[in-house]
Write a sequence for this structure.
């Protein structure tokens, strides 16, 4: 099933301490954003991509798209002060007759076409679906540097992106959240808040979000391993 993709890339990645926004950091000679876009550009089911950037970086994004010849990037739009606002600006540019829209972090470059296809299939069936993986570590609730409780992790999942939704569902959820001034932790939380069921699709532990300098080391290892598989 065909889908559109919204990629918010307006964050500055301050925790990375790299001096540039994390989507521009190079991994094996190519910007993180290039690794992210490659998967959607190469997926025949992806109809179009909408990039959302900071106002200061729109020209840089336009030049980047032209240099790397991404033909599926239909719009490059300015985002808001919060990720949620940026996503909503991107969703507004998705054609109204589109069925599904995927929302994916620019700094999550290791998503695979296989997992995208499984996610799209589930979202087409249910209306809303997210990739996630079971939590592996022991999780404790801490208050004032003291353990209050050890959480039963059997029902805990770490949610990833892409998150896939029927366009009408996620657009209405974002509109209502904006009207009410409510900020969610992710797009699925908005959809959940307004009464929709969100299905879980098993993701991949390699589908990490690059947040700190340590993540870059892990990311390089993932790319080198994949290159070895293709050799």
């Amino acid at each position: 099933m065909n889908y559109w993709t919204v990629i918010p890339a307006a964050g500055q990645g301050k925790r990375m301490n790299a001096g540039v926004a994390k989507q521009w950091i190079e991994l094996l000679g190519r910007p993180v954003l290039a690794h992210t876009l490659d998967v959607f550009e190469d997926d025949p089911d992806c109809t179009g991509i909408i990039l959302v950037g900071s106002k200061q970086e729109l020209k840089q994004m336009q030049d980047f798209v032209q240099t790397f010849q991404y033909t599926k990037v239909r719009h490059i739009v300015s985002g808001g002060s919060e990720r949620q606002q940026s996503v909503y600006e991107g969703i507004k540019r998705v054609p109204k007759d589109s069925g599904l829209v995927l929302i994916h972090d620019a700094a999550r470059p290791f998503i695979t076409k296989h997992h995208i296809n499984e996610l799209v299939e589930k979202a087409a069936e249910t209306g809303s679906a997210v990739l996630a993986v079971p939590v592996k570590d022991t999780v404790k609730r801490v208050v004032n540097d003291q353990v209050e409780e050890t959480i039963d992790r059997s029902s805990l999942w770490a949610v990833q992106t892409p998150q896939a939704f029927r366009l009408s569902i996620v657009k209405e959820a974002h509109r209502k959240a904006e009207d009410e001034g409510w900020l969610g932790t992710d797009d699925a939380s908005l959809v959940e808040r307004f009464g929709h069921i969100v299905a879980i699709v098993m993701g991949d532990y390699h589908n990490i979000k690059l947040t700190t300098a340590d993540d870059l080391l892990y990311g390089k290892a993932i790319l080198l391993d994949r290159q070895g598989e293709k050799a």
The CA atoms of residues 43 and 65 lie 17 Å apart.
